[in-house]
Amino acid sequence: MQWLYWFAPAGALVALGFAVLLVLGILKKKEGTDVMVSIAKAVREGATAYIKRQYSVVAIFFVVVFAVLLTLAILKLVPLPVPFAFITGGFFSGLSGFLGLKVATASSARTANAAQKSLNSGLRVAFSSGMVMGLVVVGLALLDLSIWYVILNSVYKAKPVVERLPIIASTMLNFGMGASFYALFARVGGGIFTKAADVGADLVGKVEAGIPEDDPRNPAVIADNVGDNVGDVAGMGADLYESYADSIVATMALAAAAAGGLTAALAAEMSLKMVLLPLVIAAVGLIASIIGFFLVRAGERAEQRVLLWALRRGIWGAALLTAIGAFFVVWFVLGPSYIGVFFSVLTGLVAGVILGFLTEYFTSDNYRPTKGIARSAETGPATVIIEGLSVGMISAAPSVIVVAAAVLGAFYFAGGSNNFNMGLYGVGIAAVGMLSTLGITLATDAYGPVADNAGGNAEMAKLKPIVRKRTDALDSLGNTTAATGKGFAIGSAALTALALLVAYRNEAQEAIRKAGSTIAALDISLTNPRLLIGIFLGAMLVFLISALIMRAIGTSAQAIVKDVRHQFTHTKGLMQGKVKPDYAGTVMLCTKSAQKQMIVPALSAMVTPVVAGIILGVEGVLGLLAGAITTGFAMAIFMANSGGAWDNAKKFIESGQFGGKGSDAHKAGVVGDTVGDPFKDAAGPALNILIKLMSMVSIVFLGLVVALKLF
Amino acid sequence: MQWLYWFAPAGALVALGFAVLLVLGILKKKEGTDVMVSIAKAVREGATAYIKRQYSVVAIFFVVVFAVLLTLAILKLVPLPVPFAFITGGFFSGLSGFLGLKVATASSARTANAAQKSLNSGLRVAFSSGMVMGLVVVGLALLDLSIWYVILNSVYKAKPVVERLPIIASTMLNFGMGASFYALFARVGGGIFTKAADVGADLVGKVEAGIPEDDPRNPAVIADNVGDNVGDVAGMGADLYESYADSIVATMALAAAAAGGLTAALAAEMSLKMVLLPLVIAAVGLIASIIGFFLVRAGERAEQRVLLWALRRGIWGAALLTAIGAFFVVWFVLGPSYIGVFFSVLTGLVAGVILGFLTEYFTSDNYRPTKGIARSAETGPATVIIEGLSVGMISAAPSVIVVAAAVLGAFYFAGGSNNFNMGLYGVGIAAVGMLSTLGITLATDAYGPVADNAGGNAEMAKLKPIVRKRTDALDSLGNTTAATGKGFAIGSAALTALALLVAYRNEAQEAIRKAGSTIAALDISLTNPRLLIGIFLGAMLVFLISALIMRAIGTSAQAIVKDVRHQFTHTKGLMQGKVKPDYAGTVMLCTKSAQKQMIVPALSAMVTPVVAGIILGVEGVLGLLAGAITTGFAMAIFMANSGGAWDNAKKFIESGQFGGKGSDAHKAGVVGDTVGDPFKDAAGPALNILIKLMSMVSIVFLGLVVALKLF
Question: pTM for the full model?
Answer without folding.
Answer: 0.91
